[in-house]
């Protein structure tokens, strides 16, 4: 580098006096135009690089990614649906007993709902009845889980049958109390009317 610098410094006057020829400027401008047009072509090429085939490939990759994500979610992320295990799954004998109690309980729940609709119960009374029924349903859910875990355990089977009996008795007790209150209200109304 030092030699080049030395030559330039020694011949500085010659470099400052000489002008390039007119052809040199034309040649330089042509080179710039050519370079500029090559850059424009490269930009156009990049723009046109996304053909319909390219878009189809991207769409296919996205579709596969969505499918895989959905399958992973379905298989690993969603909780397994709760399987209800009942006495009818144990044997036909228990199926008959369960059917009897379920029908009885369903009828009693219908009667209870009808009485609750007819009688003007306070919010506190309705809440108390609903709380009792929710507690019974929670106990039933636990018994179903126990039965699913131990389907041949006589203790669990007997507990399920006792649960049905208890729920039926409790519903009958609530219905009878509501009927008694209704009768007492009717009797009081008639006594006050006379």
Describe this structure in words.
- The structure is a single chain.
- By secondary structure, the protein is mainly alpha-helical.
- It folds into 2 domains: 76 residues; 107 residues.
- 84% of the residues lie in helices and 0% in strands.
- The protein contains 7 helices and no strands.
- The mean pLDDT is 79.
Fraction in beta strands: under 5%
Mass-distribution shape: rod-shaped
Overall pLDDT confidence: 79
Question: What gap, in angstroms, lies between the N and C termini?
Answer: 131 Å
Which regions contain 5 or more consecutive residues with pLDDT less than 50?
A: none
Radius of gyration using CA atoms only: 45 Å
Order of SSEs:
HHHHHHH
* DSSP helical segment count: 7
In total, the number of domains comes to 2
Helicity range = over 70%
Structural class: mainly alpha
What is the number of beta strands? 0
Q: Could you give a short account of the major beta sheet?
A: none
